Amino acid sequence: MLLGFPLLSLAIWVPIIAGVAVLFTGSDRNAHVARVIALIGSVLGFVVTLPLYFGFDPLASGFQFVELSPWIESFSVNYHLGIDGISLLLILLNSFTTLLVVIAGWQVIRERVAQYMAAFLILSGFMNGVFSALDALLFYVFFEATLIPMFIVIGVWGGPNRVYAAVKFFLYTLLGSLLSLVALIYLYNVSGGSFSLQEFYRLPLSLGAQILIFLAFMMAFAVKVPMWPVHTWLPDAHVEAPTGGSVVLAAIMLKLGGYGFLRLSLPITPDASQYLAGFVIALSLIAVVYIGLVALVQSDMKKLIAYSSISHMGFVTLGIFIFNVHGIEGAIVQMISHGFVSGALFLCVGVLYDRLHSRQIADYGGVVNKMPVFSALFMLFAMANSGLPGTSGFVGEFMVIMGAMKANFWYAFLAATTLIFGAAYTLWMYKRVIFGAVANSRVAELQDINMREFLVLALLAIAVLAMGIYPNPFVEVLHTSVNDLIAHVMQSKLPVQ
Amino acid sequence: MQYILPLWPAYPELFMLAMVCAILVADLFVSDDNRIITYALTQAALAGCFAITWLTITGEPIHTFSGMFVDDLMSDVLKLFTYLGVMVMLVYSRAYIATRGLFRGEFFVLVLFATLGMMIMISANHLLTLYLGLELLALSLYALVALQRDSAIATEAAMKYFVLGALASGMLLYGMSMIYGATGTLEITRLSEIVFDGGGKDVVLVFGLVFIVAGLGFKLGAVPFHMWVPDVYHGAPTAVTLFIGSAPKLAAFAFVIRLLVQGLGAEQLLAEWQQMLIVMAVLSMAIGNITAIAQTNLKRMLAYSTISHMGFLLLGILSGDLNGYGSGMFYVVVYVLMNLGTFGMIMLLSRSGFEAENLEDFKGLNQRNPWYAFLMLLLMFSMAGMPPTVGFYAKLSVLQAVVNAGYLWLAVVAVLFSLIGAFYYLRIVRLMYFETPQDTAPIVPRADARVLLAANGLAVLVLGIFPERLMALCMYSIQASLYVTQ
């Protein structure tokens, strides 16, 4: 019954149309109307993605909910959508996070409310587009288009250094994606005039060409993930972005990079991926270990979580490039889990920032005395961030480490250090902010979280716990897709001599 | 009489000529208060040309005036866009020129003469016809730039434009004379036949080609022949800058296609001019984009941006196949659309005694008027080539042609420079959205300009979502017009 109904198009266009509708409410005199429309839009946007999950057949190979219609015939570009298990989870995560961001910004944002809400809704639609595009050009268009709303969000509602951060964010990511555009055009010409990803998957390519294409893609996705050493835009962007911006950036936008590796790099250039896997793994391990240490010395909470994100995303790229089921599934689970956890942590910092207007760890202390409910929730997320069993953070990391162990002991060993560093920087920060005596008079005046904040954090807490205790519903949709992907990657695409 | 038959392919030009003469005379009898009549007649002339061109589209190349004039699909489409561009420009400029004392008969007559020049250039099938059209356009433009005669900066710009333009025309003529010497003909169709039969090895021919390319470089404003562009863009009244930056680019594109592709497109010559265009394209993108960063005057910045866009356009042409020429045509049409919108925006913010031509004047536009800020945002992202705006597809189609021609490295260079370009377009978005306004005067445009500007800005987005029609139109009209000579 659900087949044939353009669910994916709905997932893309419902938020975008809602966003445009919000824009039409105009100035801040109608701020309340804007908020309500945004809420309705984001709820609808989430609701239309649910049938995707329930109608999804986890045993079927290939793409589901496929929509195909010609778009730009001169370039044989098609409006071609479809999802597998990998994209399914990310779409759900995206729509869920957008809903939370709309609620989280309800009272906090007072200036240009309509534009704020609209930016997030439109961004959400674009990102669903990235996750469901099966046409390379469509993918690219959505991928690039996400930059515009995020640029505006950071620049308009961000902190004091927001202009610098926004421009850096934009140019950094644009640099990467422009090179991948050249690679896509090259593939278009080689494939005889098609932008279809499935066409690209079948295309035989020499190793030299594959390596160049791989590197071009990697420029785009490594910046997005971000991998060491092209991560430097992320701490700036996170610190300056408003809470909602940080949440979406960490929870979804970084995943565009990981998803890009899985959807483009691996299947299109399998030989180059294997050839260069050692290189990518090395970068990932540097991110895990070195960035973990960098996180330890941060005095700004948002910066700390930003570095923690980079370190956790190192796990994702590590898992992807060890090419076994555990590794890749672990990477995907880690992406989802990181979406919940980092989003939640940024929301927690946002809660504190809204009250004290400081992100410095040193300005806090003894918050638990004034905000017990908040502290309990924050505790859960801190634990999840350090990978405590029973939380979602554990599942992904454990799977990746297990996969790495199969590949090489030392990969696993180095990756596992994150369990120590992660716990160290997260819990140490938690201790300094939450425990101890009340640090100063401003902390003494803190109010505990209100219903709205509680709702947002509680929803995330449920997700984190559910995924930690019973990950099966998340993992089972992945099996077939990941197995197919690995089988594809293991098949050489070098032209037969 | 049979030499100039059939006459109908040239009806638009003839109609335009008759109308300009009529307006010139009629304007004498119109008082300053009723100058609106001249304006209406000008628009009517353009609309009439549009209708005539539209009605006489056949899709087949038809030669007339003893082969000096051609009417093919490419010329029809380019002419239609030219009329539209000029009409839109007149609507945008109306309030601007009225407050600056330029709302006079001369302005309209010169604009129409320039338009006639463009039409002739677009339809020329003979080097002399091309040259006549070009000079008619150029002379009208020199006068237009200098129209604000009390402004020192405008006069200087006009002088510079005139001297350099005359030099370029001289080069072109010199090159044409050499080609005539080498081949014995000035007719483009005939020329291409001779060159295809192997006449191209002649050193004189190649020498002539060099001068022709240099002359074209001047007219397009490509590096290293770009010196006049920033000064003219800056010095001319904004309405005239808008005019120079829009429709004449379409004519210049036709000019390049007629001369290089149709006339001198034979294999051995193609390799020659391809090399020259590569140098000009790369330099234009480099110098245009990098110098634009340092500008604080918006008009100057856009001048350098034009230079870089012309570099991109050359990329499409130098790909040397129908696909590349089609992408070039798409690029130039899209460029004109974006340029119209951007300068329309500058004139929207200008008012009596105040030119909104510094970057600072765009500060906080989002707080003053979110709608116009949004339109400008679309235009800027389109200029930068970001999806989902039409500028992206323009860049994409050119890049595709370049990669297809085997110049992968050129594509990489091009995207790297468009990254640099993104920086200064982004700066305008940044000023509009992230800063607080300095200028708080209310923005009160005329209703017609308001509607048209909205349509123009949204067209950038709508064509970005549905680029197929326009792209196919450009590809098809190039194919229908050029397949004979290929």
Quick recap:
Chain A has 497 residues and is mainly alpha-helical. Chain A contains 23 helices and two strands.
Based on Cα principal axes, name the global outline of chain B: globular
Got a strand count of chain A?
2
Radius of gyration of chain B, taken over Cα atoms and rounded to an integer in Å: 21 Å
Q: In this structure, how is the largest beta sheet of chain B organized? A: 2 strands, antiparallel
Q: What's the total count of β strands of chain B?
A: 2
- The number of helical elements of chain B comes to 20
Quick one: biggest sheet of chain A?
2 strands, antiparallel
Helix amount of chain B:
over 70%
Could you say which overall geometry of chain A the principal axes of the C-alpha atoms support?
A: globular
Provide the structure class of chain B. mainly alpha
For the CA atoms, what is the radius of gyration of chain A? 22 Å
Low-pLDDT stretches of chain B are none
C-alpha end-to-end distance of chain B: 32 Å
Mean pLDDT of chain B: 88
Element string of chain A (H = helix, E = strand): HHHEEHHHHHHHHHHHHHHHHHHHH
How is the quaternary structure best described?
heterodimer
Describe the structure.
- The complex is a heterodimer of chains A (497) and B (486).
- Chain A has 497 residues and is mainly α.
- Chain A is 73% helix and 3% strand.
- Chain A starts with 6 loop residues before the first helix and ends in a 7-residue tail after the last helix.
- In chain A, a hairpin with a 4-residue loop joins strand 1 (64-72) and strand 2.
- Chain B is globular.
- Chain B has 20 helices and two strands.
- A two-stranded antiparallel sheet of chain B has the order 1-2.
- Helix content of chain B is 75%, strand content 1%.
- The chains are: A mainly alpha (497), B mainly alpha (486).
List descriptors.
A: 497 residues, mainly alpha, two-stranded antiparallel ribbon, 23 helices, 2 strands, 73% helix, 3% strand, B: 486 residues
